[in-house]
Structure formats: structure tokens, C-alpha cells
Amino acid sequence: MCYNSGMEFRKIYVCGHRNPDCDTIMSAYALADLRQRTGWQNVEALCPGRLPPRAKWVFDHFGLQPPRSRADVYVRVRDIVCPEVPILPADQPLIDSLRMLESSGESSLPVAAADGAFLGMLSPAKLLALFIAKDDLTIPTGRAPLHREMSILQSDDRVHDVKAMAIRNAHNHFPVVDAQGRLLGTVLKRAFAETPPFRMILVDHNETAQGIPGVDEIPVIEVVDHHRVSFAPTAEPIRYTADVVGSTCTIVARMFRGAGLRPSKQIAGVLLAGLVSDTLLFLSPTTTEADRTIAAWLERLSGATAKELMDGMMSVGSALTSLTPAQAVDSDRKSYAESGYKFSLAQLEESNFVLFHRQLDALGAELERVRTAEGLDFAALLVTDPLRGHSELLFRGAETVRRALPWRVGAHGLFNLPGVLSRKKQLLPEVLSCLP
Ligand SMILES: [Mn+2]
């Protein structure tokens, strides 16, 4: 077995939803810490895409390194290279290479030049002529007749894209080269039939359509979430921790408690920041008593207050001043497929609606662009003022749905949503009830 035997995964990624907000990033970061402290190996939190400025502020504030940003988790050819298949140096005497080939149990081994370039595969069939001529087996391996007519894989190739070719291919060994043509190793054909050497823990979402691209290629072993459940049936039992609370950070903090552990001062601060950002400092109707109780505990452990973290995050340039309209629409946008409709709901927190109204044309054009690019029936942007407790909605697309929405249209053609702070609890249910 080349990799991924038993429970030894090369990596377990903890990752929130795409277009990440503070709750998603902070809960992934803290859960990775909890899992490491409870003895799990090779756990890494990821930031799906760009780290938002407010999340950066939180990590800076607590002196922590933010999680690594990744655009996707597609399984690449380099991820399934078999480390046990050796590379033969071209200048090594052929007899030594033959011994290595014999002891490897493989039918061929790749040969690399001194600069790493792939030269060909050393295989017994190609060497027959040499034996018949009773040639000197001390010649350098690179000067022996090598097999060169095989498919060479690029380390960046997606496994998904080359799998069909590899399985049909007559050869069992595929040399892998990097972008500079240097030989990295060998992928065995059987690796394409095995599950990838990674596992996923999802936080703050459970719908793969909202997850980091490629998430559906990697088995999910755990979910920690506070959203509606739309998770596909699994082949094996998984851990699933969900509750109706205001933030995923609340659940992760409770998991620390349940394990009899205290988060460190910094991790407590990170959890508190995620909690107050998702509950809008306890003003959102999604806020529960559990959120307040946990926040008080996290305040004691972190030495920070909920209010000062909220002020700190809000002090970082609002999305509408620091981002282009395209980035602003994408910064916290979720896509849904429901009742035959595909749509996307974006949300921004902004205490200055003048900024919003000034950019209406550009933001509307961006919603149209997203709608066309992703084949959506409609796309909407909810702009929420957490301090005054109301929102306005910019809507593009499906006229039947737009007409059915229960809110009044006010100035600038925007829907007025007094008292609406939560996309999940207030906007989404109304939108779903308007789908014919
Ligand atoms: Mn959340």
C-alpha cells in the first residue's frame, strides 16, 4: 500500500464556506487547534480564498498567523505520487540500478538526469539487447536503453482530469514532472482507484456547493455547523455537531468545554471575534442564550471584550470602501439550488448606506455578471447595518420571485427590510417561500 493506509491521512483540512466570513475562518482555526490538542495528527485549518481584512485584523490583534489561503482542494497528481518508488540517478552504474529495480518489486523505475530532468523508464524488456551483447553493466544508467514511450503526468494535473486516461493506459507506472520538467516521482495506476490521502472537516456550512472548490473529491469526516442541513448521505459514520445557535464559534467553544479543555488566551479571542461578528454583537435574531453564556466565558479567558472586538473589526475599512464592486459582491456570497431555482445571496455589513447607494449601478451590474456567469435565476445583495438593525436588498433576475417578495420597495428601487439582520434566518426563508 503506497499511502493512506488505515487512519494515516497525509492531511486533515478544516475549512469553512467559500467567500469566508469571520465565523467561518475563526471556527476552522479554533477547531484545528482543538483537534490537535486531542491528539489528531496533521490537522490544518484553511482559509477558502482571500483572507478578508476584518479576519486579518483579528489574527493581527491576537498575534497569530492566519490560516493558509487556498483557492481549491482539488486532488493533484503530486498528491498521489508514491514516495516508495525510487528515482534512479542517471550517473549511477547500471548494475546498481538493476539491483534497486529488483528489490523495489516494480516492473520499471524512472531515471533522472543530474538536473532532475526525466530521461525514461528503466525496464527489463528494454535491456534485453544489452544482455545479449554481454555489455558492461557498470555503464551509467542514463546510457542504458530506456523506455520512453509512456504518458508523463504534470504534478499540477488534477487527478480527476487524468484518471480515465491513466486507467485505460497499458502502463502501470506514470512518471511525474513539475513545471520545470524535473522528475518528482512515480504515480502507480492503482493510486487512481484509491481514495485521496486527505480528509475534510467542514465548519460553518454543510452544503458542498458552498464549500471550497474540490471539497467533493475528499471524504468528509466531521461537520460542525449552525445552518440548515443539506448534507448528502455518507458511506461511513461521521461526526456531526450542529445546533441552532448564533455562530459556529459558539459550538466550537462548547466542544473545548466538552473535552475538558480551555482554549488558550488567543484562541478564546479568535472564537469571541467570530461569535460577535456572526451575531452582530448579539443583535441578530439568530442570537441565543448559549451565545451570550459562551461569550462571557470567552471574554474571561481572552481578556478581550465582545464590544472591543466588534469595534475593532468594524474599524477596518468597510467592504464598500476597501473592495471593488466585484469583490464586494463576492466577499460573502452563498449559492443555493432549490425548487428548480439556482440563486445566490450576498451580504455586506455597512453602517454607511450613502456609500452603498452611490455604488448601486456598479453593484447591480456585478449581480448581473454573477447571474450570467453562473447560470443563476437571480442574485441579490443584502446590505445590513448592524448598528441600526435593518437591511436593504438589491435584487437582479427572476421577475416572478422579485414580485413575490414581502418587502416594500423604497428609494433607489431597493427593498427595505426593517429589523432584518440575518440572511439565514430572515432573508433565506422568505426567498424560499417565494419560489413557485
Ligand atoms: Mn456562521
Can you give a write-up of this model?
It is a single chain. Strand 17 (408-409) and strand 18 (415-418) form a beta hairpin. The protein has 15 helices and 18 strands. It has 436 residues and is of the alpha/beta class. 43% of the residues are buried. Helix 6 (248-258) runs antiparallel to helix 7 (265-278) and helix 7 packs across helix 9. A six-stranded parallel beta sheet has the order 3-2-1-10-11-12. Strands 13-14-15-16-18-17 form a six-stranded mixed beta sheet. Strands 4-5-6 form a three-stranded mixed beta sheet. It folds into three domains: 11-73 and 197-315, inorganic pyrophosphatase (n-terminal core), CATH 3.90.1640.10; 79-192, CBS-domain, CATH 3.10.580; 319-433, Diaminopimelate Epimerase, Chain A, domain 1. The structure holds manganese (II) ion.
The CATH homologous superfamily of the largest domain is called inorganic pyrophosphatase (n-terminal core)
Portion of residues within helices: 25-40%
**Which CATH architecture of the largest domain would you pick?**
Alpha-Beta Complex
Low-confidence stretches: 1-7
Q: Note the beta-strand portion.
A: 15-25%
Overall morphology: elongated
> Which molecules are bound in this entry?
manganese (II) ion
- DSSP strand tally: 18
